[in-house]
Write a structure and sequence with these properties.
This protein starts with 7 loop residues before the first helix and ends in a 6-residue tail after the last helix. By secondary structure, it is an alpha/beta fold. It has 18 helices and 18 strands.
Length: 517
């Protein structure tokens, strides 16, 4: 891609809870129903545009009606606005409601009234069992039943409808929040992204998550923001570094990978290939001499520095001075993939920590080398990114809490305490900066739960760091690119058969800005 790089604060959206979203809505509109209706019209237009995008992407079913199901609150009002726009633009639709219109109030009543005045038709469902539908009944179901205001168990009528909709083989677009246990194909969140969409106990109901910002005052959003953020899939690539078309290989970024040992040559190979496919100009690799032959067969592009290991198959303390001498040529360093956990290797890692002269990624065995003593991180004199999975995290920092909101707090605290950028890999991946900002990235994909996936991530981040991104930018963009590669690879090969190597094959299309559809 060839575009102007943007700053993080230009594309990030504050992440809030459902209760905060309700508070924000009340603060914005106050006692003004008209202001509330303006927000509702914005929401309805966003839903309408999402419906039209779906129809464009699925032309074979686009002439089937859009099936909109409404409740009695503002979520239903959003649905009525969308229905009015469908009517206006001659798009086939049907609107069904579980609540008698006589009970509609305020903005929801205005939306219903304007829909009927425009010539719209509304079917009040009194008996869900009498509603006959199958997979040919429509092209898309719009769930505008309850939204974020619902609490507790569903009323029987709603529960019965949700059960019926779950059995339909029709895609479901939920508005603001799925009517759980309804399993949405996609959820369009109105206003600001919600923490609930990333909660492991709830996220499977949301499907794909998109966010449609509304015209809330920024000052009101800032008041409730806790420094947690989300970025839309369409915006991540705006963080890409600008390439110098006239620059040589060094101008495109120089990086060093310190990795490998006997029996673990795959890790450095995967990290290297990922870095090379992610734009780095010149990649160097420091490795034990015992594995040089294997890696030189696998890789053509890197510059190898094979350090005599006397058939030990791993790094030795006698290598320290040579490795340190390599630092002056690098814009970024990655240490850890496949190092092994031998005692002498751990000593090499800890003695290198205070000597790095450019931003560094500590991954895998470089984290294990700290032996549960995170205070060793305080010896770093450069910006650093740590990329632990849950077990590596717990070895280093201790057990994680079970609730996502508490995990966010802990990761934020550790990033601030040790002045590092933390990438806690998981669903979602939680990225925290030394300033206390947190970004949630990625979605569930069991195809990534395979040895070597983390090495690919480390290589991608290294390349972005070497090309001039900050540690936070490189961590965020690298994590998203890795997750997106996972989604594309899964579509192509399936979760069972995809390999970490296959992720690397998906990188070119991502960096070229090609659609995943």
């Amino acid at each position: 891609m060839n575009q102007q790089k943007v700053k993080l604060d230009e594309i990030r959206l504050p992440l809030i809870s459902a209760s905060q979203a309700i508070e924000l809505d009340r603060s914005e509109k106050g006692d003004s129903i008209r202001k509330g209706y303006t927000l509702m019209e914005e929401a309805g237009e966003a839903i309408y545009e999402k419906i039209q995008l779906f129809r464009t992407n699925h032309p074979s079913v686009a002439q089937k009606p859009v099936l909109i199901f409404t409740g009695g609150g503002n979520n239903g009002g959003d649905g009525f606005v969308a229905a009015r726009l469908l009517l206006k633009n001659k798009v086939p639709y049907r609107v069904y409601g579980l609540v008698d219109p006589i009970r509609f109030k305020n903005e929801a009543f205005l939306a219903y009234h304007d829909f009927i005045q425009a010539g719209g038709f509304f079917s009040h469902i009194q008996d869900v069992d009498s509603l006959e539908m199958d997979s040919s009944s429509g092209c898309l179901v719009v769930d505008a039943l309850l939204g974020i205001g619902a609490v507790g168990e569903l009323r029987p009528k709603f529960a019965k409808l949700v059960e019926k909709l779950n059995f339909l083989e029709i895609p479901i677009l939920s508005v603001d929040s799925p009517t759980i246990p309804l399993k949405a194909t996609e959820t369009i969140i109105l206003g600001n992204p919600r923490r609930e969409a990333f909660d492991s106990s709830l996220s499977s109901f949301y499907g794909k998550v998109t966010v449609a910002p509304l015209s809330y005052q920024k000052s009101l959003i800032k008041e409730i923001s806790s420094g947690d953020y989300w970025i839309s899939d369409s915006d991540f690539l705006k963080l890409l570094p600008n390439r110098n078309e006239y620059g040589d290989k060094r101008a495109q970024g120089t990086g060093l990978i310190i990795s490998g040992s006997i029996g673990m040559t795959g890790a450095p190979s995967l990290a290297a290939l990922a870095a090379l496919r992610s734009g780095i100009g010149l990649l160097s690799m420091a490795l034990p001499s015992s594995i040089l032959q294997t890696l030189s067969i696998k890789l053509n592009e890197p510059v190898f520095y094979a350090l005599e290991d006397h058939q030990q198959g791993s790094f030795l303390k006698e290598h320290l001075d040579f490795i340190k001498a390599l630092f002056k040529y690098q814009k970024a360093v990655c240490i850890g993939p496949g190092l092994s956990q031998k005692p002498e290797v751990k000593q090499v890692v800890t003695q290198l920590l205070p000597t790095f002269t450019s931003p560094v990624i500590l991954d895998a065995d470089a984290l294990n080398a700290l032996d549960g003593n995170p205070d060793l991180l305080l010896s770093l004199n450069v910006d650093a990114i740590l990329t632990p999975h849950v077990r590596e995290w717990e070895r280093l920092f201790g057990a994680l809490p079970s609730k996502m909101e508490d995990v966010i707090k802990v990761v934020k605290e550790k990033a601030s305490q040790y002045k590092v950028t933390l990438v806690l890999k998981g669903v979602p991946t939680c990225i925290a900066s030394p300033k206390g900002e947190v970004y949630l990235v990625g979605k569930a994909n069991s195809g990534l739960a395979k040895g070597g996936s983390g090495d690919v991530l480390a290589g991608i981040i290294l390349a972005l760091l070497a090309q001039g991104l900050s540690t936070l930018e490189a961590a965020i963009l690298g994590t998203w690119v890795h997750a997106e590669a996972g989604q594309r690879t899964r579509k192509r090969l399936g979760a069972f058969s995809m390999l970490p190597t296959d992720l690397i094959d998906s990188l070119p299309s991502i960096f070229m800005g090609e659609s995943s559809k």
